[in-house]
């Protein structure tokens, strides 16, 4: 009887080990959201432009922000539907509302270029970001994001390509590529379903 207990016990332990080591394959959007939230990011999902406007308005009310910085022509149209002052040049005390190039699923990062940031470094911009992105901007990794930029802007590739990697302001980044350059932002993501 003792022999059967040991045999059965070793069988159940090996079964548990097999179950615990099975890889989980998430879709790009699920993977991005999982990684983004684990880094402290906040996002609101929208299926209509009206929902995007309502979510933006709720973010502004929640944080008691009376003005916003936005230089993107299409996003300024959205902001004009809300009773708020819009600045065109960034100020440290005013949240920065911007689109992005890509959403990096495997890291939960958001990729920007000079199209959004101009000549500013991410560290020079306000601590609070509100980013508008669409589900079609999701890519698997940074390499696919850079390839997407190169393909989309063939012949006129933007400069100043960088990413926000942390969504908790006080968090230090040990990545040697970002040494001395903290890309941490208090970030809200307005994710619009466009597929």
Annotate the secondary structure layout:
Blueprint: H1 2-20, H2 28-38, E1 42-46, H3 49-63, E2 67-69, H4 73-79, E3 85-87, E4 96-99, E5 102-104, E6 109-112, H5 114-117, E7 128-134, E8 138-139, H6 142-152, E9 162-164, E10 186-192
Parallel strand pairs: 1-10, 2-3, 4-7, 5-8, 7-10
Antiparallel strand pairs: 5-6, 6-9
Describe this structure in words.
- The chain contains six helices and ten strands.
- The protein is α/β, with parallel strands linked by helices and 195 residues long.
- The protein has a single domain (26-172), classed as Rossmann fold.
- The strands form three sheets. The protein has a four-stranded parallel β-sheet, with helices on both faces. Strands 8-5-6-9 form a four-stranded mixed β-sheet. Strands 2-3 form a two-stranded parallel ribbon.
- The relative contact order is 0.17.
Summarize the structure.
The chain contains six helices and ten strands; from the N terminus they run ααβαβαββββαββαββ. With 195 residues, it is an alpha/beta fold. Mean pLDDT is 84; it is low at 176-181.
Number of domains: 1
CATH hierarchy, class: Alpha Beta
Q: Would you count the extended β strands for me?
A: 10
So, CATH architecture? 3-Layer(aba) Sandwich
- Global morphology: globular
Strand content: 15-25%
- Main sheet makeup: 4 strands, parallel
Instruction: Examine the coordinates and then state which fold CATH places here, giving the name of the CATH topology.
Output: Rossmann fold
Please give the count of helices: 6
* H and E string: HHEHEHEEEEHEEHEE
Uncertain ranges: 176-181
Q: Measured on Cα atoms, how large is the radius of gyration? A: 21 Å
What is the percent of helical residues?
Answer: 25-40%
Structural class: alpha/beta
Overall mean pLDDT stands at: 84
Please list the strands of the largest sheet in the order they lie side by side. 1-10-7-4
Cα distance spanning the termini: 60 Å
